[in-house]
Amino acid sequence: MPVDPLPVEPLRAVTATRYVVPLREGGSLPGVMEADDLGTYVVKFRGAGQGRKVLVAEVLVGSLARALGLPVPELVLVDVDPVLGRAEPDQEVQDLLRASGGLNLGMDYLPGALGFDPVVHVVDAELASQVLWLDALVGNVDRSWRNPNLLLWHRKLQLIDHGATLVFHHDWARVERAATKPYAADDHVLGGFATARAQAGDALALHITGDLLERVTAAVPDAWLEDEAGFDSADAVRAAYVQHFLRRVDARDAWQP
Ligand SMILES: Nc1ncnc2c1ncn2[C@@H]1O[C@H](COP(=O)(O)OP(=O)(O)O)[C@@H](O)[C@H]1O
Ligand SMILES: [Mg+2]
Asked: How far is the centre of ligand 1, averaged over its atoms, from the C-alpha of 160 (Å)?
C-alpha cells in the first residue's frame, strides 16, 4: 500500500555569535552557542576528536527521526568563525573552535530540560516502541539506562545525541554486514515501556522509502562527506547511506528487537 511521502525540512543555516558554555558530560565537548537568529544551540564541533562522522550521524538520524514524527529538537547548521574562540579562557575550547571553522551541527537548546529517569518517568508504549525500533535501525548504543540521551521538556520526551549511531561509516568495509546486524536491546532505557515493537516497526518501515532517504541525506553538507576514501563524491556517499538504510529496513526480520 503506497503511503504519502513525509516532509523533510532542509536544515536552516545560522551564524554563531557567541560561545556561552561547554557541556562536559560526554567526551566530545559540545558547547552552547548563541547565533544571529537569536537562537541558542547545543553545537557539536567538526574539529572534535571523533570528527565529522559524528555530525553526519546526528543529521541523518535526527532528520530521519523528525521526518518519522519522533521528538528530536530542531537541527541547524552553525557557521563558526574560529575568532569566536580567542576570548575563551579554556585552552581546550579555544583549540576546538580553532579547528572547527565553517559548518558545524547545532541542536535547538532546550532550557530547563530534565534528564529522563526510567524509575520516575513513564513513556507510552507506542512512543517507546518507536524510539527503540529507530535505535535498532541505526544501531544506537547510547540509549542505555546509564546514558539515556533523553530529555524531558515541558513534560514531553525529547531525543538527543545520535552521534554514536551508524558505526559502520567509520569503516565502510563493514556496511554490508551492518544491514543485518542484530541490535542488543537489553540495555535500552525504554525497553520496559516498549511493548508494541512489531507494530511500531511495521508502521515506521512503511515510510522509509528511497525518496525519503534521498531527502534526508541531502540535508548533510557536502563538506562533511567529501574526500571519503573509496567514494568519488559526496553524492556517492549519500547514495551508500540510502542503500544501507533500504537494505536494513528490508532485512528487519534479522534485527528487529
Ligand atoms: N538540545 C539540548 N537542550 C538542552 N540540553 C542539552 C541538549 N542537547 C544536549 N544537552 C545536554 O548536554 C549533554 C551532552 O550532550 P550530548 O548531545 O549527549 O553530547 P555527548 O554525550 O556526545 O557529550 C546532554 O547529556 C544534555 O544534558
Ligand atoms: Mg550524550
From this structure: 7
pTM: 0.97
Whole-number Å distance between alpha carbons of 145 and 125: 17
Query: For residues 58 and 52, what is the distance between their CA atoms, to the nearest angstrom?
Result: 10
E strands, 92-229, where?
102-108, 114-115, 150-153, 156-159
The rounded distance, in Å, linking the Cα atoms of 190 and 123 is: 8
**Three-state DSSP state, 63:** helix
Rounded CA separation 62/11 (Å): 11
Is the shortest distance between the CB of 140 and ligand 1 below 6 Å? no
Q: Where are the beta strands (DSSP E) in the chain?
A: 12-22, 31-35, 40-44, 75-80, 102-108, 114-115, 150-153, 156-159
Residue nearest to atom 1 of ligand 1 (CA): 109
State the chain's mean pLDDT as an integer: 96
The residue written with cell numbers 534528564 in the block is 115
Residues 18-53: tens digit of each pLDDT: 999 999 877 789 999 999 999 999 999 999 988 899
